[in-house]
Design brief:
The chain has 145 residues and is α+β, with helices and mostly antiparallel strands. It is built from one helix and eight strands, in the order H-E-E-E-E-E-E-E-E. It is flat, with a radius of gyration of 22 Å.
């Protein structure tokens, strides 16, 4: 009886790993908790309408030139970097600070889209991505011989 219990645990573990891979875009379950060292996961909302999929991502302090978006029919990948440098001089005293923050998110889409027709806007630290849906494919009836 004991081996059957462990077999169930093994199957459960395999299924959980598969779900994490699907959720995180195929990169493996480790990304659920720590995507990459020093990389933040931006907060995102995904909304599906009749005609499009709308993604809103928070990328505070990022310049629009530092945002990279890659899209396929089934997923969107958002990469961004925020860099800043501050310098303070006071007499013979000099203080200089540099920061670098990276953002990364891969999102599985709820419907197939037309990535070549996507439009992106960035304002006040919020990225809005609109992806038109693919037209519904017509079904073909297959006769059984």
């Amino acid at each position: 009886m004991m081996p059957a219990v462990w077999e169930e645990f093994r199957r459960l573990e395999e299924r959980m790993n598969q779900l994490f891979r699907e959720l995180m875009g195929g990169e493996g379950e480790r990304r659920l908790f720590t995507p990459f060292e020093g990389v933040r996961t931006p907060f995102c909302d995904v909304q599906e309408t009749d005609s499009e999929v709308i993604i809103t991502a928070e990328l505070p302090g990022v310049s629009k030139e530092d945002i990279q978006i890659n899209a396929t029919e089934n997923e969107v990948e958002i990469k961004a970097e925020r860099r800043s440098e501050q310098e303070e001089k006071s007499g013979s005293y000099l203080r200089r600070e540099r920061t670098h923050t990276s953002f990364y998110r891969r999102i599985a889409l709820p419907a197939e889209v037309q990535p070549e027709k996507a439009k992106a806007k960035y304002r006040d630290g919020v990225l809005e991505l609109r992806l038109p849906k693919q037209k519904a494919r017509q079904k073909s009836q297959i006769k059984v011989e």
